[in-house]
Amino acid sequence: xxxxxxxxPLSGPAPKLTxxxxxxxxxxxxxxxxxxxxxxxxxxxxxxxxxxxxxLQKRLGLERVVVTQSNAYQFDNGSTLAALDQLGxxxxxxxxxxxxxxxxxxxxxxxxxxxxGARIMNLPGGATPIARLKPVEKLARAVGWHLMVQFDxxxxxxxxxxxxxxxxxxxxxxxxxxxxPVPADDRRxxxxxxxxxxxxxxxxxxxxxxxxxLGGPHYEDVAPVAKRVIAHAPxxxxxxxNWPHVGVPRAAYPDDAELLDILLEWASEAQIQRxxxxxxxxxxGFDR
Length: 288
Fold this sequence. Notes:
Layout: E1 24-28, H1 50-60, E2 64-68, H2 78-87, E3 92-96, H3 104-111, E4 115-121, H4 133-143, E5 146-150, H5 156-165, E6 170-172, H6 187-196, E7 201-206, H7 223-232, E8 237-240, H8 256-266, H9 269-284
Helix pairs in contact: 3-4
């Protein structure tokens, strides 16, 4: 059955932060009519169309976006690719799920439509876990893509050898997603900073509400790690809204303006310019 239309809030007060020209939201999901959830992935509770996101994008004052393949679709990237076609190459890039049996030609065809990365998702419902990263990395290298890697940060020790072996640029997603927040001086944060010191590893400020026990708008238990990483490598930090926040009860649904405004607390004005404009332009190939 086709999921019902979106009922999530798309309008509201503008954020306190006025984004600089060219600002990029590097993590959203699109759910279009005609594309069904696949076995192994979660259900799709509501659609979330390009038109829906454009309303939110206008509210936030953002100009560009990266559409990330939803776990619901597993390896069916059709909705993500259709969204990229609708948004257009001057506005949008994509990150898709790549299976081991795809070919370089498959990736080249998606590259022509705006895809620049492959998603590695090591949490329930993810299409490609870290254990199957290497074949995907080989394909990504052939077309100049990066990997976007999400895992429970508490398990970093288990994944560190694999992460250290990656030979293409990659993103540590969702503030390293410590499912139990940790202090800034946690030794696993030290390891994350060492990864960033490679020079081709990126860190995404996104979805603090998924891990915070204290909640918004300040996410005080997530903030220390985010602030430390931003201060350490501001030239490799990006930001994403994680809209439309699937799996979050409506009573706990985050305010997207507050998710953007958190940068006012966590970063300086010069760092915000890098995070919202310069860094994603470098990673995703947007004109500045």
